[in-house]
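Progress report, Aim 2. The chain analyzed during this reporting quarter is listed below.
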Amino acid sequence: MKKYYMLVSVFVWLFFSNLALGQLNGDGTSSNPFSGTVPASDEWIGEIYANDLVIPTGVVLIISPGEFEASLLNMEESALTINVGGTLLINPNASATIYEIINNGTLILESGSTEFGVASLIHNSYSGSGITRTNLFLRSGLFGSEFVWHYISMPVTGIAATLFNTLNLAQFLESETTSEGNDSGWITYQGYQYSTTNTNEAYEFNTLELGKGYNYYNVNPTTFTLQGTLNIFTIRQNLSYSGASDYEGFNLIGNPFASCIDWESLVGTYTSNVSNAIYFTNRDKMAAYVGGTSVNGGTEFIPPLQGFFVKSTSPGGYVDFVPEARVHSPDQMRYKKKSADVSGKGNDTISFFRLRLATPGDSTDVVVRFNKMATDGFDRELDAYTFNRGMGNINIWSTTGNTDYCINALPFPVESVIIPIGVNIKIPGTYKLSSAELKKLDLYNITLTDLMTSQVADLKKGEYVEFTSDAGLTENRFIITVTKSATDIAETLEAGKFFAVYTDKDRTINIRSLRNSNAIFGSIRIYDLTGRKIYDEPKVEWSGRFELRQIKLNNPSSGIYLVELMSGANRFVTKVALK
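Predicted structure tokens for the chain:
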């Protein structure tokens, strides 16, 4: 009898002991969330809700994405405790929102070895003596003929530059840029300036800062482990400004959190002298996003560990990275962002067309959008510069005035507008220019003209221009003509639109005949905005075949000028801007 009583006592003790240490209540749904202690190592996939979890010693809980969707552990109103010897591992493209983390074990945020994504964590409170490790995988080598560099940022403080064990960890110093280019801004952590090959000890840095972006390259793929407490506080990044040229004012900053941030949510947290556009690398391309529109895969969501450029337009600018901007994005791609809506948020309300330059295995794009609030100059809420015309094996941009754009916002044309298209090609071959996307422009005719071969493609009909090119930069060969209420370019010409007028970077006024045949006789007059005539050529002949005339004014002031072209009973007046 005594022996039986002892056996019952042992059984009861084991039962209640295991219940206390390993009982998990609920089914993980929003109406019946998990709570209690995770009883054994497990992998959770999909959207899972939990309240006040404990990961005990010896248990590894893995959060992984499903085959067709990301995974989210939702504990936004409760606490997660990781005991000594316990582990929480969040895999790439998986996310967790946890109000409070008490970590005496190990917390790991994983980075994909194929760059498919990174882990994402949003939390409001952290304590404990445990270890937090954030893994950062960086690909290596070449893409085509281009080295694969990565814009990176840190979610923890105190990361040593020597962790990257290479000279090819660089910061970007806006103060070193010039009005002629920004390549001189790249300087390694040991003070070596790539553009001059000089070393300046004053530019050395030992640790990587929160809120700042960096550039990295290595010949070998590497996974770096960033160990430290993840930042959850507002980080202010002050911006440098050294001049008003298209190349100056760019600052490389970075996401200081362990989750994505929504750039649109940061509007209002940075000063009004900071343009709204963001720029970052996508393989060998420069991706950009501004105001719901993007090129080369840009979106408003900036992944964890991602650096990106912004442009300051005067001294004193800054960006406040606030924790309220943290979000989880289904595609947390570090170097190849993708989205089902590649043109950005709300593109159904945006009038735009996307022109793509492509060759087998490679492509890049430029966007021209129309908005009633846009001007012919740079609009901070709508425009994005072409950051570097030499980046990648192929590059494309549009030009208005003296400025090159990757996203070019213009006012809706009253009658028509001519938009020059420039390309830079590093590998000789055959290329195609076509419209990859065209929306909300039903009242306009849009044609692409190759002025060298006289090809004219109706982009709204899906036509394209195919051309063969040597390596090099080509400007003033391709133009886009956007005409209101016209069915083809011939009708526009007969109505009096005989010319395309635009300026070059050297302040030359270009007037190109849009006639493919037949001579045009007329006159050219140019006025400043006071009405003063500063150029008069009464007898001009264009022989046809898209002939170009170039006018170089004598020391003109910067500003807007009116160009008047007369041909018989037809009179054409347009504005050009000289900077």
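The chain is about 5% helix and 45% strand. The first strand starts at residue 24 and ends at 25. These observations will guide the mutagenesis work planned for the next reporting period.
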